[in-house]
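Write out the 3D structure for:
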Amino acid sequence: MAEVRRCGVVESVHHGTVVVVMPDGSVGLRLGDVSLPVLPRSTAKPLQALACLRAGADLTGAALAVAAGSHIGEPIHTAEVRRILRDAGLEENALQCPAELSGHEATRIEMLRLGELAAPVYMNCSGNHAAMLAACVASGWPTETYLDPNHPVQRLVCEVVSELAKEQVEQVAIDGCGAPIFTISPLGLARATRAMMLATPGEASRTVIDAMRSHPEFVGGSHNHVNTDLMTRMPGLVAKSGAEGTLLLATEAGHAVMVKVADGGPRAVPAIGLAALAAVGVDVDPVSELLRASVIGPVRIPDAVHVTL
């Protein structure tokens, strides 16, 4: 789907799958076997956040955006995660995601200067985990075992994924944050996201989407983060990246794109997703420079990713 060119010579290539589901539900672009189940990683977070709402979690605005996002551990992010926990009557030690230093450089440097230790609240999935814990409290479910695939909150996530994707989950794995992650096809995930985008305002699924669009800085970071940058520069767009070369994009009109790069590398993923949108007629001019992504930054001899859809 993409090539890395050095002085016009193809040096490396990226294979994978990409699908675009159109506003009317038809498939506008399909490359690779888009019906083959994959691990969606963090692109599934909007669906996980929706499951938390259905379980009764009281999440709105920035709290819902951070629940559906992958933050970088800025002070605004950790404050919101702590607020979700506090409102649910929980302490920070209820989080069972891995302990990490902040991914935000200035915050990380300050942590090191003060001798602060890594903590789960700084992990980029802590908003997602806090939402699951809030859902457990709201529904009267145990919080100690919320990461067990057979826990009610995780079974509800599986049900939501299957319902909106219109597919049965075939396998379950454990994500890098410790939460269960359910296999689904790129086509199914794009179909699910389209349904969320086109839901009636006020419905739970649309509430997740609207929170992400209204608070893009909580879906990624205040600067230099692909999710936030794309949503800020293309108002109405929803962007959610994930590990191992996954990306979900959806327009206000109802186009939904799912990208999965086979080698798991992230460098070509945004360019592929935007090129797929452009191929079905979506205007991506506000971020057109991302269609040709620099590989190693400004150098005398330019190296760049070129999409070859």
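The two ends are 5 Å apart (CA to CA).
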